[in-house]
Specification:
Distance between the termini: 180 Å
Radius of gyration: 55 Å
Helix content: 40-55%
Oligomer: single chain
Mean pLDDT: 74
Shape: elongated
Largest sheet: 5 strands, mixed
Number of strands: 19
CATH topology of the largest domain: Outer membrane lipoprotein wza fold like
Structural class: alpha+beta
CATH architecture of the largest domain: Roll
Strand content: 15-25%
Low-confidence stretches: 1-5, 15-27, 39-50, 78-91, 98-128
Number of helices: 9
C-alpha cells in the first residue's frame, strides 16, 4: 500500500510541473495525500482501515485522470485560439470603393495587348499555310477509280467542276481540306464507297510569285514557306548576262513598287535580300547599253548592269583610245525628249589629267571618239619617210 502512495506522490509532483493537471488541482491532491497519511496510522490496526485506504486511493487516481484530461483540453483550446483569430475575418475594414473606368480601360487594354501579341506570334505560322485560290491548276484523282480523274482550274468564284458531284467550292481551303471535302461529297452521294482522293497542284497561281525579265526561267513559282529575293531568283535560274541590278518588286494590293539596287557581288551586301510574299511580281529589267564608237580599240555596246557608267569607264571597257584619237574633241550623242539627238562635248584629255570631272553616261548614250587628221598625216608621213630611208639604205649596200 505504501508503493501505491508513492506512485500517487510522483503523480502529484508531475502535475505540479503542468504535465497532467492545472495549478488548482495540485492543492487538492496534496490535501488528499495528507489525509491518507493520517488515516494510515489510525486505521492500521483495524480491518476496516484497509478497505478505506483502497477506496481513497481509487478516488484519488480517478480525480487525477479527470484533472489531466481537462488540462489537456484547455491546452488544445489555447493553441486553437490564435489559429481561429488568424482565420477570422477582420471587422475594421474600410468601405469598398467603386472601380474607375480608367482602371477598367487600362486592364482591358493590357488584355487586348496580350491577345494582339499572341496573334502576332501565331501569324508567321499561319502565313506558311498554303491555300487554294482562283487561277490554280489542280489534278484530282480518286484511288482505283480512274474515270473520276480530272484536271481543272479554280474559277474566279473559287469553284471547280468534278464529275458526279458537280461544283465544289475550294477557295481558301488547304490541300488536305479540299481532299476531305471531295471525299465526303462522293461518299454522301453514294458514288464511291470509302473514297480516297488526292490533289496535285500543277500551277500555284494564287499563292505564287511571278518573275519577269532577264532571268534564266521566267514564270510563276509557288511561295510555300518563307523565301527571300535571292532564293527566288536562284529558283528561277539566276540572272542572265544582260540583267540589270535594279530590280522592281510590286506587292499585291499596292500601287507603289519597291525599287532595289543590288551589288555586283551579292555576297557583299545583304540589305537587298528582302522578304518575298505570295502574289509579288519581281521584274528584272535588261541592263542599259552604252555605245562607244570611233578611234578606240574595240568599238561596241557595253552593258551597264548597275545602271550607271562614266565616260572613262566606258572608254576603258572599249579597249582604250588609239594613238591617232583626238581625245579633246570627244562627244556624247544622246536622244532628246522630242526624238532628236543632243550633242555634248567632253574633254577626255582633261579628265585623264584630273583637270575635269568624269561625266556620267545614261542608257543608250553614244560616246564618239574622233580621229585626228594631223596625227594620221604625221603617222603616214613618218611611215613614208621610213620606207624611203630603208630603200636608200638597201640601194647603197647593193648598188
Amino acid at each position: 500500500m505504501a508503493l501505491s502512495i508513492s506512485h500517487v506522490e510522483k503523480a502529484v509532483e508531475n502535475s505540479s510541473n503542468g504535465a497532467l493537471i492545472a495549478d488548482g488541482s495540485q492543492s487538492r491532491c496534496a490535501t488528499l495525500l495528507f489525509k491518507i497519511q493520517d488515516s494510515q496510522g489510525s486505521s492500521m490496526k483495524s480491518g476496516t482501515g484497509l478497505i478505506c485506504r483502497g477506496w481513497t486511493l481509487s478516488l484519488v487516481l480517478a480525480f487525477l485522470t479527470v484533472a489531466g484530461l481537462s488540462a489537456q483540453q484547455s491546452a488544445d483550446g489555447a493553441q486553437n485560439k490564435p489559429a481561429e483569430g488568424q482565420n477570422a475575418a477582420p471587422t475594421n475594414l474600410p468601405p469598398p470603393q467603386p472601380i474607375s473606368q480608367d482602371a477598367i480601360s487600362a486592364s482591358g487594354g493590357n488584355a487586348n495587348a496580350e491577345k494582339t501579341g499572341d496573334t502576332s506570334k501565331d501569324s508567321p505560322e499561319k502565313s506558311t499555310i498554303v491555300t487554294l485560290g482562283a487561277g490554280d491548276l489542280i489534278e484530282v484523282a480518286v484511288y482505283n477509280v480512274p474515270e473520276l480523274a480530272s484536271k481543272v482550274r479554280v474559277s474566279n468564284s473559287g469553284d471547280i467542276y468534278l464529275p458526279l458531284i458537280d461544283y465544289v467550292h475550294v477557295e481558301g481551303l488547304t490541300q488536305e481540306e479540299a481532299q476531305s471535302l471531295i471525299e465526303k461529297r462522293l461518299a454522301d452521294g453514294g458514288f464511291v464507297r470509302n473514297p480516297h482522293v488526292t490533289i496535285f497542284i500543277d500551277e500555284f497561281t494564287s499563292q505564287g510569285v511571278t518573275i519577269l525579265g532577264e532571268v534564266g526561267r521566267p514564270g510563276i513559282y509557288p511561295d510555300i514557306g518563307d523565301h527571300k529575293l535571292y532564293q527566288v531568283i536562284s529558283q528561277a535560274g539566276g540572272f542572265s548576262q544582260n540583267a540589270s541590278r535594279k530590280i522592281t518588286i510590286l506587292r499585291r494590293n499596292q500601287t507603289d513598287p519597291l525599287h532595289i539596287v543590288l551589288p555586283r557581288n551579292l555576297g557583299d551586301d545583304q540589305s537587298g535580300n528582302v522578304e518575298i510574299l505570295p502574289g509579288d511580281t519581281i521584274t528584272v529589267p535588261r541592263a542599259p547599253i552604252i555605245y562607244v564608237v570611233g578611234d578606240v580599240g574595240r568599238p561596241s555596246g557595253i552593258l551597264a548592269d548597275n545602271g550607271t557608267m562614266t565616260v572613262l569607264q566606258a572608254l576603258a571597257l572599249a579597249g582604250g583610245a588609239n594613238k591617232t584619237a583626238k581625245l579633246g574633241d570627244s562627244r556624247i550623242l544622246r536622244k532628246g525628249p522630242n526624238g532628236g539627238v543632243m550633242e555634248t562635248k567632253v574633254g577626255i584629255k582633261k579628265m585623264l589629267e584630273a583637270k575635269a570631272p568624269d561625266v556620267p553616261l545614261q542608257a543608250d548614250d553614244i560616246l564618239f571618239i574622233p580621229i585626228s587628221g594631223g596625227k594620221v598625216l604625221a603617222a603616214r608621213t613618218f611611215e613614208a619617210t621610213m620606207s624611203v630611208a630603208t630603200a636608200l639604205a638597201l640601194y647603197t649596200v647593193h648598188p
